[in-house]
Amino acid sequence: MIQNIPLYDICSLSDINQDDILISRFAPYLETHKNLFATHRHSFYHMVLFTAGSGAHTIDFESFEVKPGQIYFMVPGQVHSWAFDGFTDGYIINFSASFIQSFLLQHGYLDNFSFFSGNLADTVINLPQETFAAVKPLFEAILTEAALSATSAVDMVRLLMLQIFILVNRMSINPATGNNSSYNQTLLKSFKNLIEHHYSDIKLPKDYATLLYITPNHLNAVCKDIMGISAGELIRNRILLEAKRMLTNPKLSISEISLKLNFSDNSYFTKFFKKMEDITPEEFRKKITQDHGK
């Protein structure tokens, strides 16, 4: 019988009634939650720093090699699984958006960090030795603060997490970036944010260009210059990703998924999916179900 891909919130993974934050060393977390090796989804933000281990982990159907010194970030809704080879350790922090946002006046502060964009190219980062050496003690300090009942311990955890975000973000910024490139990066970020909110109802680059007050040619040039793909490909890739995520839920029929993504009919959706993925939606669902059952 087909099992639904589970969706976990922080409460379901914590021994205490805490729905905003879960902090742990990675090895004991794995020992307690062996069910998380199989494909699952999160309703929260998720950050892991590996200090030991090998194998692989998969985010939104793309596999990454596990390496000590690697940090990865996930946003709510992404699909995830682990396939470790031997002992694996490090640190894990699961947290809600409100855990950080309640501490800050700037709305959407996490959007400033590319690794929280959901773009897989920015999600998994192999830290240089000097950055790893600076970040690891911050995770240790977070564990220490989390174990305290001291006044403002939770605020100290927030501050330490922000230090981690900023240090990792600084590492990925090119100091030689010019103003024009910075403008284009901002434009691309705005385009991606629009796609995130409208991928099911706006499918043409020219319509996004209108919303951004630029020409379609300008939008396409920015995408090709920074991403190496066209604006249309960026839109289609996001639609494909959402289709894959929906296909992990057997309670949704192919017709329902097609409707939710605003395709005119099932055959058009199937044709789109097969052109992008080389297999039909039904074949993809069967493969995911088999992988989940292993």
Short synopsis of the structure:
The protein is α+β, with helices and mostly antiparallel strands and 294 residues long. It folds into 2 domains: 166 residues, Regulatory protein AraC (Jelly Rolls, Sandwich); 114 residues, Arc Repressor Mutant, subunit A (Orthogonal Bundle), CATH 1.10.10.
Helices and strands in order, then pairings?
Elements: E1 7-8, H1 10-13, E2 21-25, H2 26-32, E3 40-42, E4 45-52, E5 55-59, E6 62-65, E7 70-74, E8 79-84, E9 89-95, H3 97-101, H4 120-123, E10 124-126, H5 129-146, H6 153-172, H7 179-198, H8 205-212, H9 216-226, H10 231-247, H11 254-260, H12 266-277, H13 281-292
Parallel strand pairs: 1-3
Antiparallel strand pairs: 2-9, 3-8, 4-7, 4-9, 5-6, 5-8, 7-10
Helix pairs in contact: 5-6, 7-9, 8-9
Sheet having the most strands: 5 strands, mixed
- CATH C-level class of the largest domain is Mainly Beta
Radius of gyration: 20 Å
CATH topology of the largest domain: Jelly Rolls
Q: Provide the CATH architecture of the largest domain.
A: Sandwich
Helix tally equals: 13
The rounded distance between the terminal residues' Cα atoms is 14 Å
The tally of structural domains comes to 2
Structural class: alpha+beta
Share in helix: 40-55%
**Secondary-structure element sequence?**
EHEHEEEEEEEHHEHHHHHHHHH
The average pLDDT is 88
Parts with pLDDT < 50 across at least 5 consecutive residues: 175-179
Number of strand segments: 10
CATH superfamily of the largest domain: Regulatory protein AraC
Strand order of the largest sheet: 1-3-8-5-6
Task: Indicate the proportion of strand residues.
Answer: 15-25%
